Amino acid sequence: MNGMPAVNPAALQEAAKRNLWLHFTRHSSYAGSEIPIIVRGEGQYVFDQHGKRYLDGLAGLFVSQIGHGRTDVAEAGARQAGELAYFPLWSYAHPRAVELAERLAGFAPGDLNRVFFTTSGSEAVESAWKLAKQYFRLTGEPGRYKVLSRHIAYHGTTHGALAVTGLPGIKMPFEPLPPGGVRVPNTNFYRAPAFVADDVTAFGAWAADEIERAILREGPESVAAVYLEPVQNSGGCFPPPPGYFGRVRAICDKYGVLMVSDEVICAFGRLGHIFGCERYGYTPDIITFAKGVTSGYSPLGGMVVSDRLMEPYLKDPNTFLHGITFAGHPVSCAVALANLDVFEKEDLLGNVRANEGAFRATLEKLYDLPIVGDVRGDGYFYGIEMVKDKATRETFSDDESERLLRGFLSHALFDAGLICRADDRGDPVIQLSPPLTCTQEHFDEIEQILRSVLSDAWTHI
Ligand SMILES: Cc1ncc(COP(=O)(O)O)c(C=O)c1O
Known about the structure:
This protein is an alpha/beta fold and 461 residues long. The protein is built from 15 helices and 15 strands. It has a seven-stranded mixed β-sheet, with helices on both faces. It has a four-stranded mixed β-sheet with strand order 1-2-3-13. A four-stranded antiparallel β-sheet has the order 11-12-15-14. A hairpin with a 2-residue loop joins β1 (38-42) and β2 (45-48). α3 (71-84) packs antiparallel against α12 (330-345). It is globular. The mean pLDDT is 96. The structure holds pyridoxal-5'-phosphate. Pyridoxal-5'-phosphate is lined by residues 120-122, 125, 154-156, 229, 233, 262, 264-265, 290, 301. Pyridoxal-5'-phosphate (PLP) binds next to α5.
């Protein structure tokens, strides 16, 4: 309003409350308290406006793979801005986009050799849908437009990405969405239907076959793609059951449906590999990525696409009728290349693979608390499901969940110095996704804070 930047902590707080609109945030919850303002980061930690330190157990928002405060990566961006700050990828290329595309194609499996950049994960998800729809028009199957995805899966917030998302609560206010989003079961084995609850492989086969049943129900000639995360984030880190992805791949091939591996969270080391599909041994047709590609030092997203899908677009006069001004921004591409250099020099993939067992074992110590029902995940990506009754796996009522998560846990964890996510979009979970540089001392710190806060939480139900 007054046009002057806020200069001191009190003024900054006041301006934050007056002028800034936070994302997915109940602003009323800050009516009687401060909005946390994070001012700087260093390694695995960030610091607020009062100088208080927090362990960043969520890597910001599944983003800061290499950790905070890396001036070498920041300087790569600054150098690029001095050389060529901006040029579009509309009919032109620039060196950093070419180099990054080549490098990403080198990491991707099979014939996934073509990279289309975006600025975010939602745009990547949306771009993959548009690519698929136009591809099928170019190849004589114009009726294919539907996309399958899993219950409770989050794939982004723009209208198209929201239509792929499987969370009814965040879709309802924006209906009608683009038509064609179809849901299939997720791979939450902790909540598996009774007839497959004792056998994870049978559960995986059932969940994959549900995809086939959905394709047949919808009519294969109308289905363009199925979107799956390697480990599903929303709902609390559901890893794939053994055999699941192989079976889904075969089903997609049988019906000519494209398989999109949405790796906006699961790529760039989160699961100990550059791309998550490598960990589970499948080759999708498209990988969507964002977040960790730059570790957040600049925004970037995109998709890696198979040569087969590019083929019709190479024929005259065909054009993919899609573009985004800032996609593949030179500064972001330079930063992504520097980020990947850090991965290599510091063997971050090796660090995740060597330490993920210790991370899991440390979190599993929490099983002695009555509220901890399930600890699940892979790599540096875990969800802890909280339950009212461990023996029956009974979950909390909506009111209890509201009191527990919003009324207590979110604030208490933050006050105790841990940034993580307490979420009840599925059943109530705490999610952890720390920087890939973390080691045992950080796992211990996470466990100790969780132990103290979760013990307290039990008394607040
Ligand atoms: C799997 C998945 N897809 C897409 C998105 C959307 O990404 P963005 O917030 O960059 O638009 C997210 C964001 O968390 C995600 O987790």
